[in-house]
Amino acid sequence: MMIPLQQREELALNLEKEKALKVIPITADGNCVFRVLAHLMFEGDDEGHHADVRDAVCNELEADPEGVYSQRFTSRIGDYREDVSYADRVTRMRRLEEWGGEPELAAAASIFGFKIHIHHPFFEPTGVRLIQAPEAKKGVEDVHLVYYGDHYDVAYHELRPFNPGVKEAAGSATAEEAVAPVDEAGNNGDGDVGDGDSSVVVVWGRRGQSSTGRRISSTRLHGLGLPSSRR
């Protein structure tokens, strides 16, 4: 569902107040999915790297390990409403200014080691949808996007600024877990899955996350054709 322009600022204020998330506006030019990913990976430099990130994501979709992406393809429905075949989808996504969606975020979650929290007030029951690969562990970075129905912005936790240069072993405590109050159900109110907060979990893929739960390495980034310089 589309969020009217006049309500988007209110949503950003609510996220900052209720979840300590600071929303960063991203250019709305048809590349926003790849811009938010580049913003996360390259110190806010979405302008310089969104095309490279698009290429890496499309390469993962084309490789389609074990058919994990193509098996969800439904011609002319939902994210695929403009696509006759899965191959058509991948070809179209390689073009700049083509809107990406959940399939592209799923591929990014796999190759970059992200647990992607998408905030939208109409996502039931908590206003958050999570996209992750099955291998996702505690050491994988939680990253936050805001979806308005026609555009994505990126958001950063004030209590736990995203820093993919720091590799955490699975099971290690995060800065936020050390300071955020936790209730009897294990919730700390940030909406993050894995600490007791409920969400809609969309699990895709089987690639990109090591058994130790550490982030994708600089060597792997180079292998994806991406620079190794990150936040």
What does this entry look like structurally?
- 32% of the residues lie in helices and 14% in strands.
- It contains seven helices and six strands, in the order H-E-H-H-H-H-E-E-E-E-H-E-H.
- The chain has a six-stranded mixed beta sheet with strand order 1-5-4-2-3-6.
- A hairpin with an 8-residue loop joins strand 2 (114-119) and strand 3 (128-132).
- Helix 2 crosses helix 3 (46-63).
- The longest helix has 18 residues, at 46-63.
- The model is unreliable at 163-199 and 205-220 (pLDDT under 50).
Secondary structure: elements and pairs:
Layout lengths: L4 H15 L1 E4 L7 H10 L4 H18 L22 H8 L8 H11 L1 E6 L8 E5 L8 E7 L4 E6 L17 H5 L20 E4 L14 H6 L8
Helix pairs in contact: 2-3, 3-4, 3-5
In short:
37% of the residues are buried.
CATH architecture tag: Alpha-Beta Complex
Task: Spell out the helices and strands N to C.
Answer: HEHHHHEEEEHEH
Number of helices: 7
Spans where pLDDT lies below 50 across 5 or more residues: 163-199, 205-220
Please outline the major beta sheet: 6 strands, mixed
Strand content: 5-15%
Q: What general outline do the C-alpha atoms trace?
A: globular
Topology-level CATH name: Cathepsin B, Chain A
CA-to-CA gap between the ends? 33 Å
- Radius of gyration using CA atoms only: 17 Å
Keywords:
single chain; 231 residues; alpha/beta; Cathepsin B, Chain A; six-stranded mixed beta sheet; 7 helices; 6 strands
